[in-house]
Write a structure and sequence with these properties.
Two copies of one chain form a homodimer. The first copy, chain A, has 463 residues and is α+β, with helices and mostly antiparallel strands. Chain A is built from 15 helices and 17 strands. Chains A, B: Its cofactor is FAD.
């Protein structure tokens, strides 16, 4: 162990206690989550509160050591990846729900609280968090905010940014930015906390937040729809939105190869996939005291069937069947069985451009390398597609070419090369290449204003 | 006219044409809107598009002239106030609706488009803007964004910030920041456009925006409720929220003196005020194809009456009666008849703290100067109160003392000294006094990063 490591470890132990510091093998033994380099650092410190966190940052900054903040390690772009010389700051010990205000529909939480924990507390008050996503059990508040998480319901309640009322963050010099506003309306000058939302820990380490909650909606009915094409899907979405916008919980789209791949990984899903349909939708509507929403959905689907928009349809008749429909949608890990090498992309396009984009993409990959399998699913109303590639031959050495196939068509339609996963290390080169130079320069200037020495999460997002 | 004025006028005329430049009396002849100093500048330029706007900013910056951006002049804190040497940049000529996308529910508009114009276009597609406010006919997009306007429905759809998907702004050096994103999800680096939202034109001049729209909701029923106290009002809100959250259009609260004052200004409102009720609520619910919402509201109100929560109640039985209820709520200009001198404040508090705050405030003003009349109304679910003072003796010379009465109690409950009106020139001293010094310093640093010479709207918000 290097001498400066020993000095730092002693100082960190003084701040966070023995239970708050891990070194070497103690770090490697942990689950590294979704990125293999998450636990590459030699030292991990887990402060118990904001004061300890501030002291940790101050201590590392003074010794010229860079910090990598980590939460539930469910991020998909390597924003938590560390190098041996970095110090990992895990927020997982800061997992306290500070306050829940039923009347104002807000919750105040430390950064290490998981989405599942928020919802457990909120649902006791008939409320819930407006953002939901597949990694709900592991994703923490700090990560949700730092990645501006999107998920299944962005079309209704917006992204995580729209849920953040107040925020506390530790800055690169160890001072604490504190704006734990709990009000819907607060126009007292520039809303600086917006800077920390979606900044992936490069401008400050989020330590605490006040989040707005929304009235809880329970599912009344979940259906899996088999479609001939996306045009039909969009017409069904139009009808759903017109009739039940405020009771729509999800409209998810699965291209056939994705659905088949998840089905093949789970015997219990054998009968759940429509063999001849190029597309499926998962649709869920909320319970309503005043109307039979299950009946409403069935009526709407029957009329869609009569109008030739629907090829086939399963309305879940039990909790088990509902869970299976959701497993089909959410178990994207199943793609791992489809090839020794995988890549994952997350793009957004205007909804009307989705259909053409996917068709062109499939054709482009067929000519690029027909052995690469393409699995596409996403959040239809947000125009957000997750594109997963699997192949038996290496993909990383062709990364720039593959990125070009996926990203180049986006510019013409106003698409985004990251919809909700963020930039991290994995999409940084693409952002530098395809992003607007003026925006990138201003991002760098803002970063320099807040962290000139790049103490916080260096090498991520922007230089 | 000063020689440098002549040079500048010539240059501006070259950029914006003769019809785009007003000088001296031509400026003073216009309606100065809500602030007497709005038209104090000698020169006003009205660019026709972003290119002209950028050239105007560049030209003024080169000549060391400061710029004051103006829209509908409906702001209430003097953010558009000008000095003789400033150049007013009116965005009113940039009033084009660029695009409306039904499928993605977005609208792209130039900065001079009014809220009423947006809604006129959106409603043809069954959509509307998520923010509504009393000055809807005059307020422009640039002003709504620069002030992060709130209004009647913030509890449902959030503030204007939550409606802005994309934004274009001209920076202090005349370069154009362009992020006309139209996607719900776009996590490609720091969301820098957030900086310009609520910055009151001090960091850039908003020239164009992409706004999200929401499905249009038509009023199914509007009611005026007479209450004995706020506790009863909050219980009614709880019930309304539980049963009809997604169909609630408004829950506005009027203290008795405010309601009486507006009534006295309009003969047709004579029978609309509950004489013995210290508080009234205006409640509006949306039409729903599947349920009779007027019936639902009446049932809820009947049960509130039985439970002793309601003293009296009028459910509008005609369009005229509905308009009268809204006139009672929205004609705050009526306060002008109540004294030669007026002041207006706009605070927010956590909802549970509202009742105590208003009681204490009334008592505090009685001991400070019982001749000052206090008119209070606001947006109940946001905890947002508008406090208007009227007196026959001057108030401005006692401004700091009056501010102290209104602002000092806020700190203990986590209130805000500006909920939705912003800071401008009028609340700047208060923000400097009551605001967090670290946040203020960071605000100044961000301003220096974007406009070191304070070319844009100098003297507003923060130094």
């Amino acid at each position: 162990m290097a001498r400066d490591d020993a000095t730092l470890i002693e100082a960190l132990t003084h701040i966070a206690g023995r239970e708050g510091v891990r070194v070497g093998e103690q770090v490697k033994l942990l689950d590294h989550g979704y990125h293999t380099e998450n636990l590459a650092a030699r030292i991990m410190v887990s402060p118990a509160d904001t004061q300890q966190l501030a002291a940790v940052v101050q201590c590392c900054a003074a010794q010229g050591r860079s910090l990598v903040p980590q939460g539930g390690l469910t991020g998909l772009v390597g924003a938590s990846a560390s190098r041996p010389e970095d110090v990992i700051v895990s927020l997982r010990r800061m997992n306290r729900i500070v306050a829940l205000d039923r009347e104002s529909m807000t919750i105040t939480v430390q950064a290490g609280v998981t989405l599942a924990q928020i919802n457990e507390a909120a649902r006791e008050a008939g409320l819930e968090f407006g953002v939901d996503l597949a990694s709900r059990d592991g994703a923490t508040v700090g990560g949700l905010i730092s990645h501006n998480a999107g998920g299944l319901r962005a079309f209704r309640h917006g992204m995580t940014r729209q849920q953040v009322l107040g925020l506390e963050a530790v800055l690169a010099d160890g001072t604490v930015f504190r704006d734990l506003n709990a009000l819907t309306k607060n126009n007292t000058g520039y809303d600086l906390k917006q800077l920390f939302i979606g900044a992936e820990g490069t401008l400050g380490i989020v330590s605490c937040a006040v989040l707005r909650l929304v009235p809880q909606q329970r599912a009344a009915a979940t259906a899996l729809l088999g479609l001939a094409d996306l045009r039909a899907g969009l017409e069904i979405v139009r009808r759903l939105r017109h009739a039940h916008y405020d009771r729509l919980l999800a409209v998810e789209v699965l291209w056939a190869d994705y659905a088949a791949c998840v089905r093949d990984a789970h015997p219990e899903l054998a009968n759940l996939v429509f063999e001849d349909c190029p597309l499926s939708l998962v649709v869920e509507v909320a319970h309503d005291d005043a109307i039979d929403m299950a009946q409403q959905l069935e009526t709407l689907l029957e009329s869609a069937l009569e109008d030739g928009l629907l090829e086939d349809c399963i309305v879940a008749s039990s909790g088990t069947q509902r869970e299976r429909i959701w497993l089909l949608r959410e178990d994207s890990d199943a793609v791992a069985h489809q090839g020794a090498h995988q890549l994952s992309f997350d793009v957004a396009l205007p909804v009307p451009a989705l259909d053409g984009y996917v068709r062109d993409l499939q054709a482009a990959f067929r000519s690029f390398d027909a052995s690469i399998k393409l699995f596409v699913f996403g959040h239809l109303m947000d125009g957000n597609l997750h594109i997963m590639l699997a192949a038996d031959t290496p993909l990383h050495d062709r990364y720039a070419d593959i990125e070009a196939l996926i990203y180049e068509p986006l510019a013409a339609v106003g698409g985004a090369l990251s919809a909700e996963h963020g930039i991290g290390v994995e999409k940084k080169a693409a952002l530098a290449r395809y992003g607007d130079p003026q925006r990138l320069a201003l991002m760098g200037a803002v970063r320099s204003l807040l962290d000139a020495k790049r103490t916080l999460n260096p090498g991520k997002v922007v230089d």
